[in-house]
Every structure is written in C-alpha cells, then in structure tokens.
Amino acid sequence: xxxxxxxxxxxxxxxxxxxxxxxxxxxxxxxxxxxxxxxxxxxxxxxxxxxxxxxxxxxxxxxx
Length: 64
What we know:
- The protein is an alpha+beta fold.
- Strands 1-2 form a two-stranded parallel sheet.
- The longest helix has 17 residues, at 47-63.
- The protein has one domain.
- It contains 3 helices and 2 strands; from the N terminus they run αβαβα.
- α2 (24-30) links the parallel β1 (11-14) and β2 (39-42).
- The protein has helices at residues 4-7, 24-30, 47-63; strands spanning 11-14, 39-42.
C-alpha cells in the first residue's frame, strides 16, 4: 500500500460533453479529499488538458 503523504495525489475529473460540471472545490468536498489535495477538471481527449493534469500532479508531489 502506498502512502499518500509520501507520494502525493490529486483528483482529475474528466469532463464529458453535455455532462453536468461541478467546480473543483465542490468535487474535493464531495470526495472528502485531504486539505490541499487538488481536484482538477480535464478533458482526456485533449492533449493539453492531460498535460496540465500531469503538471499539477508533479508540482503537487514536489511540494510535499
């Protein structure tokens, strides 16, 4: 089992066309994420969007 405190984690939410969207703060509350754990919106079909998620993950992991 991995240790989230050592590794760092984020929650990436894929936004589908026509689906209801929620803001990242609401998502973090609904998922009961630890304070400071980012929840980011993305479109996995879009290369730039996925790249932004990976950058967020790396920056968050490095800050821990």
